[in-house]
Amino acid sequence: MGLITLNLKRVLNWNFIFMSAVAAIFGMISLMNFGDISENIVFGVDIKYFMLDGYLCLFIFFAGEISKDMLQQEKITKRIEWKLANGIKISSIVKENLLSLWIGTLILLFPLLLMISIRLPNLILLLGTYFLILSVLYSAFINVLILWIRNMNWFKSIPIFATLLHILLVVLKCGIFMKTNNVWVLLLFSPVSIIVLTACGLCLMTKERIVSSYY
C-alpha cells in the first residue's frame, strides 16, 4: 500500500485534473445522443460495444500518460535496477505498479464513469465488469511495455502505441465477429490477446534487458 500511496501522490496534480476534465468532456459528448443510437448496429456489432471500446481507449491513453510519474520514473531514476539487484522479481515489479496505475487511472476517469453509470444504468453491470477486467489487463501490459523498452526516448509514444494496439484488436475482433457471428469473439478476443502479449513480454523479459536501458 505504501507504493500505491506514493504513486498516487505523484500523479495527483493540476495536469491530472485537466486530463480528468478532458475525459469527462469526451464522455459527455458520446453520451448526449445515446438514447437515439442505443439500438443501432454497426458492421453487425451493437454500437454499445464500440462505445465501450472508446472508453477503453481513453483509459489506455491516460494510463500511458500517468505512468510517466510511476514506473517510467522508477526506470529513469534507476530505482528498478536497485530493486532487481536486491532480488525483487520482474513479475513482482509489474504487480506492485499495476495496482497503482489501475487505481490512478480509474480515479482520473471517475467523473466519466459516474456519468456512464447514471446515464446507462442497465449496462453498467455487464459492460462495467468487462471494462474493469480489460483495464486491469491493459495496466499490466503498459507496465510490461515500460520494462521492455530499452530506448527510454520511446516512453512518450507509449500512450499512442497502446491505444493504437487496442484499436487494431477492435478491428480484428469485429472482422472475426462478422465472419463467425459469435458473441464470444466480442467478449474474449481482446482480453485473451492482451493476456498473451503481456505473458510473452514477461517470459522474454530479462534483467539484463531492463538494466541496459538508455536515453
UniProtKB/TrEMBL annotation:
It comes from the Bacteria. The keyword rRNA processing does not apply. Keywords: Membrane, Transmembrane, Transmembrane helix. The keyword Cytoplasm does not apply. The chain crosses the membrane at residues 12-35, 47-66, 98-118, 124-148, 160-178, 184-205. This is ABC-2 family transporter protein.
